[in-house]
Amino acid sequence: MKKSVTVLALALCLSLPTVNASNFENLPESLTIVENTIEVSALCTAAAKGDVEKVKQLLQNGVDVNVKSNGMLPIHYAARFNRVDVIKVLITSGSEIHTTCDKGLTALRHAEKTNAKEAAQFLKRFKK
């Protein structure tokens, strides 16, 4: 019995390399690499990082508070990363609180989705 199990195991081990062999004949001659770069505006980056001074500086220099970057407004980035101080600055500067991102989420929904409790609690004051 031991001998037959050993022979069976040996036969199985020897057959595995042939089962896993690849067929290179079906591969294309050249591969195309697609690189997608995502550019996020300076205001959205500052909002996500919580850099209140940079946000204020950009707004004073005339950057529009309601321009989407990568499908989201600066207030969405601030809400997503729980940056309540930045949210306050953006709202004071005229940010559209109830506007949705390209995925259909409001700033409040971004905060709730990412478990940004302080931001969600603050934004609930403005709920329609």
Fold blueprint:
Layout: H1 2-19, H2 42-49, H3 52-60, H4 74-80, H5 84-92, H6 107-113, H7 117-123
Overview of the structural elements:
The structure is a single chain. With 128 residues, this protein is mainly α. It has a domain at 42-126: Serine Threonine Protein Phosphatase 5, Tetratricopeptide repeat. The chain contains seven helices and no strands. The chain has helices at residues 2-19, 42-49, 52-60, 74-80, 84-92, 107-113, 117-123. α2 (42-49) packs parallel to α4 (74-80) and α6 runs antiparallel to α7 (117-123). The longest helix is centred in the N-terminal third of the chain and has 18 residues, at 2-19. The model has no long low-confidence stretch (mean pLDDT 85). ANK repeats lie at residues 38-70, 70-102. It holds the Pfam family Ank_2. This is Ankyrin repeat-containing protein. It comes from Winogradskyella jejuensis. Keywords: ANK repeat, Repeat, Signal.
